[in-house]
Design goal:
By secondary structure, this protein is of the alpha/beta class. About 20% of the residues lie in helices and about 25% in strands. The chain is globular, with a radius of gyration of 17 Å. It binds zinc ion.
Length: about 250
């Protein structure tokens, strides 16, 4: 029982104001950030970390993406989560567990395709997503997650399968969670949106748009500590330079 490896899936590119990434810095500067769901292959089945943006927007952009259309730099059929999985011979029904880092719109767009999977989400995030605080309300698109899916609401850290565990990292959103993956040759800490860019760590600048800044900072410390303790590497998938540093599926990280 072990983890075999993982794939970084190409979920397209969004563009946003840099100040959303770096706290009170970079207003008016735009930044392109990739969307990267991660597929983990284990002896106990496939685990998918986040489902990307909603591909239905390619057909009905107004109803699906609404004002979010302005955020798209690059998204084609190829970036549809189902097509990304297909690249490595996997279909949504093969995915045993989906872990949503949180319920923001760029992480839940493909949730409805996983009606055979168990979807793991913190109870605090699930509750909040239905009635978000007004200042973050537009980041939650209810039509993306409000389906009769097999949501399993968890509270706190949680072992998904042997070698893959969820660790809570609130701040970006109330119930944000990250994923620690013990690969054969390394420990990968998939931070989700707890860290937006390498710059947050390298220059010690907090992320720009947290729901709670103090909690976001605590979570960054927590994840860095996990990396130190477990000799792990932090994968910052929204980092603008992510694809310069890492390879897309079908490359298999072990
Ligand atoms: Zn995000």
């Amino acid at each position: 029982m072990a983890v075999k490896g993982m794939y970084f899936l190409d979920g397209g590119v969004l563009t946003l104001d840099k100040s959303l990434v770096t706290y009170k810095q970079g207003f008016g500067e735009s930044l392109d950030i990739p969307v990267v769901p991660v597929l983990i292959d284990t002896d106990d089945g496939y685990v998918l970390f986040d489902t990307g943006v909603d591909p239905e927007g390619l057909i009905n952009p107004d109803e699906t993406w609404g004002e979010k259309q302005a955020a798209f730099r690059h998204f084609t059929e190829e970036n549809d989560i189902r097509n990304q999985l297909q690249k490595v011979g996997v279909s949504p029904k093969d995915v045993k567990y989906v872990v949503n880092s949180h319920f923001h719109w760029d992480h839940t767009g493909g949730n409805r395709f996983f009606d055979q999977s168990t979807i793991l989400i913190q109870k605090s995030e699930y509750r909040f997503a239905y009635y978000p605080d007004w200042f973050v309300e537009n980041i939650y698109l209810k039509h993306q997650f409000d389906y009769p899916l097999n949501y399993k609401l968890i509270e706190g850290d949680y072992e998904v399968v042997e070698g893959v565990y969820i660790t809570t990292s609130p701040g970006h959103s109330p119930g944000h969670q990250s994923l620690v993956v013990h690969l054969p040759n390394q420990c990968a800490v998939l931070v989700g949106d707890a860290v937006y860019a390498k710059e947050n760590l390298e220059k010690n600048i907090p992320p720009g748009n947290p729901w709670s800044l103090p909690r976001a900072i605590e979570s960054i410390n927590k994840l860095q500590n996990i990396a130190i303790r477990e000799n792990g590497h932090l994968y910052i998938t929204h980092d603008p330079y992510f694809w310069e540093d890492y390879k897309r599926a079908p490359y298999f990280y072990k």
